[in-house]
Amino acid sequence: GRWTSWLLPYFSTIYALEPSDGANSVLTTKFSNEMRIKVLQETVGINSIPDASLDLAMSLGVLHHIPDTALAIKDIANKIKGGGTFLCYLYYKLEDKPAFYRGLFWASNWLRWVISRLPYPIRRLISQIIAGVIYLPLARTSKLLGNKGRDISNFPLHHYSNMPFVMLQNDALDRFGTRLEQRFSKKQITEMVGNAGFDLSTLKFSDVEPFWTFSVKKP
Predict the structure, then answer these.
(1) Where does residue 172 rank: exposed (0-12), middle (13-18), buried (19+ CB within 10 A)?
(2) pTM for this prediction
(3) Is 4 within 8 Å of 10 (Cβ atoms)?
(4) pLDDT of amino acid 116
(5) Mean pLDDT, rounded, for 38-65
(6) Alpha carbon 49 to chain centroid distance?
């Protein structure tokens, strides 16, 4: 919903694709008086968005939670017109992180496996606790160290240092409340967008964590 709101000043028509009942209901209510926004309770693979119609397709923090991310990128490519842009964020494999960092990740991944199988109200509660007890202290400590000139590039959760607590809560739920999570290297992402028909000469990766946020154009 927040991304949709940010796009409003720039586009004449916006499709907000949301397959889940709860989120779709929230979006429909939020944008009930905005005729430029079409809320669709459909999927990436099967939807009513016309082919080759989009100037911009955006997926931030979604496609790593579905079984076939490569196929989803191809489906999205079909909806983008020539010269249009795809903006995406996918979890990365921590390929440039030291061993201790990857070890912490795999420990948290075991917790995710357990928490994500609990009923939603319990998942949400535990994720909020994690956000307050783990995310917030680490984020604010990294901010303090960064302000003192220390290198925080390998400090856990340093990319949350300036984010408000509500973002930490949302991301903790996204991280620990979802059963399926895939992670990709820059090489794998490059291969996927190339196989989807995008122009690799336009592929740009963000050099700011969290990785990987990237944009690429349709030829």
Answers:
(1) buried
(2) 0.84
(3) no
(4) 94
(5) 94
(6) 21
